[in-house]
């Protein structure tokens, strides 16, 4: 019986949430040999331009429990978005967004800061889905205009407790 192994990590921008890729550096490329030999895989996906909290594990049951919408494990992201979000955007998230192949589960979109002068806002999105990145799951329009995005929480795990010098905005 193999021993179970889980790493709470910070995925940097420019690295993909995959086990292997011919064109991009993966989260597994960042691990030392000891961790790589544990046969871990990323729990969920973060876009290449998103940095933040990411679990790596060899525990399939844990990964399923973290990603399954039925388990209600929230994932929280922040993004600095070009343009000002509206109540209509907030309502679209609450209802779920229709994509080509399916409709997303309802999500929570909150505007944290608005910069009228720069025509941008800092938003927080809370989703229960974990199978696809939140920018894809809840309408590319949110992340397409994103200057920066970050994964802050997975359930009770918080990025802020791992990194102390990020400040209140998205870095």
3D architecture notes:
Mean pLDDT is 79; it is low at 137-141 and 163-171. Strands 1, 2, 3, 4, 5, 6, 7 and 8 form an eight-stranded mixed sheet that branches. By secondary structure, the protein is an alpha+beta fold. The chain has five helices and eight strands, in the order βαββαβαββααββ. The N and C termini lie far apart (41 Å).
Key descriptive features of the protein:
171 residues; 8 strands; disordered C terminus; single chain; 5 helices; 8-stranded mixed sheet; alpha+beta
Quick overview of this protein structure:
By secondary structure, this protein is an alpha+beta fold. Helices cover 18% and strands 30% of the residues.
Mean pLDDT: 79
User: What level of helicity do the residues show?
Assistant: 10-25%
CA-to-CA gap between the ends? 41 Å
**Main beta sheet: strand number and arrangement?**
8 strands, mixed
Structural class category: alpha+beta
* Rg, Å, rounded: 16 Å
* Residues in β-strands, percent: 25-35%
Helical run tally: 5
- What's the total count of β strands? 8
Q: What is the N-to-C order of secondary-structure elements (H for helix, E for strand)? A: EHEEHEHEEHHEE
Note the overall shape.
Answer: globular
Unreliable stretches (pLDDT < 50, length at least 5) are 137-141, 163-171
């Amino acid at each position: 019986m193999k021993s179970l192994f889980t790493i709470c990590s910070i995925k940097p921008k420019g690295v993909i949430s995959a086990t292997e890729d011919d064109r991009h550096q993966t989260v597994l490329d960042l691990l030392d040999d000891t961790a790589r030999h544990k046969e871990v895989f990323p729990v969920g996906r973060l876009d290449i331009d998103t940095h933040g909290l990411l679990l790596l594990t060899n525990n399939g049951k844990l990964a399923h429990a973290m990603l399954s919408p039925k388990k209600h494990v929230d994932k929280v992201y922040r993004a600095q978005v070009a343009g000002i979000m509206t109540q209509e955007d907030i309502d679209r998230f609450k209802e779920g967004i229709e994509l080509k192949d399916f409709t997303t589960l309802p999500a929570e979109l909150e505007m944290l800061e608005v910069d009228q002068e720069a025509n941008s806002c800092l938003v927080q999105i809370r989703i229960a889905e974990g199978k696809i990145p939140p920018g894809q799951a809840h309408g590319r329009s949110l992340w397409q205009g994103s200057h920066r995005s970050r994964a802050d929480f997975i359930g009770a795990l918080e990025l802020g407790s791992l990194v102390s010098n990020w400040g209140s905005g998205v870095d």
